[in-house]
Amino acid sequence: MGGTSAASGAAGEGFGEAEVAELCRDLIRIDTSNYGDGSGPGERAAAEFVAEKLAEFGLEPQIIESERGRASTIARIAGEDPSRPALLIHGHTDVVPANADDWTHHPFAGEIADGMVWGRGAVDMKDMDAMTLAVVRDRLRSGRKPPRDIVLAFLADEEAGGVYGAHHLVDKHPGLFEGVNEAIGEVGGFSFTVNENLRLYLVETAEKGMHWMRLTVDGTAGHGSMTNKDNAITELCEAVARLGRHKFPVRITKSVRHFLDELSDALGVELDPEDMDTTLERLGGIAKLIGATLRNTAQPTMLGAGYKVNVIPGQATAHVDGRFLPGYEEEFLTELDAVLGPRVRREAVHHDKAVETDFDGPLVAAMQSALVAEDPIARAVPYTLSGGTDAKSFSELGIRCFGFAPLRLPPELDFAGMFHGVDERVPVDSLKFGVRVLDRFIDQS
Ligand SMILES: [Zn+2]
């Protein structure tokens, strides 16, 4: 475990900046892999680590377990004006598993090399957990109260849908979030450098919803040597292939419109949403993030049928990962069924809603001004995430959720590609930048 090493920081550096990389490293060293079956070893240890770091400067965090070992840490910091609504800052402590053989540095060693902190969770999202801890500890230590109450939540189980983390807390302990009206968390706040005069910071204001489903076709079972006009595998595969090749129409939501307008402006070109392929090419790594937010998608991901080569099975199944834009769930399902045809039976296996909030108001202004104070060419722009986060849970309490984990990144770093990827790493300077921005942001929140 790392001590607080303010002394090791560069001259003029704040306490939070000096310790943020170490906090990130220490969190990465706690293996919190979430396999989706409850077997992950580390969430309890991470919750205790976080609680200890907060208690060191006078907070009284609570550790809440939904099931044995599935622990989240919650704390409330009193603000100057208790009559104002509170701000939630949330981060998850679990990570997706990693296969050490594929990595340059061991994914759970938390190496600091070449100016980067390496390891599983370095960008998703122990970076933000460490930045939050560093800022809060610095403020507690120097007695700088936030303008309003802040609720901190370090959560289990985000990587498997948050059932044992955020969903549990929202369902069973909503009182913890009493008075909270706005929240920041992942996945946003990172930079995309357009040119030497402009750096966009993508703030997440919307998320696609998810509809994971199982498809089944029943056919006529029989001997593989005989004629069979009702083969379940053939029928299912045709439907799945149609779906896999199907392109859902472009649908421009409010948040995507806003992003495209900003991008048009920044690139100085008119963007045609119907012809985004050319535009996406100019976006480098973040094209991965943006491309899937222009339309609903349905990707076949699993197939199952049969048990012997000379037996035609009576049934075949497939799984599909479906994602819909805010406001387009009904259209998605109608179109999906039309593509699949009448032979396919569809059941939902997991569903979570789409969320969207406006990119306006004092909190957004606070993000913009905190960014500009640290990076004069910064401009905050809203974008839609094609995946999902714990924001889905918190929005159920009427909380406006933003993805804002500020990082100024070197343009050549493929940041989007590192989420759940190999050699996940974050520059130490980016973490320090995030600490300074978050500190300013809290002052103005
Ligand atoms: Zn994440």
UniProtKB/TrEMBL annotation:
Keywords: Hydrolase, Metal-binding, Zinc. One of its GO terms (molecular function) is hydrolase activity. Its cofactor is Zn(2+). Residues 205-335 form the Peptidase M20 dimerisation domain. The keyword Metal-binding applies. It holds the Pfam family Peptidase_M20. CDD domains: M20_yscS_like. Belongs to the peptidase M20A family. This is M20/M25/M40 family metallo-hydrolase. It comes from Streptacidiphilus fuscans.
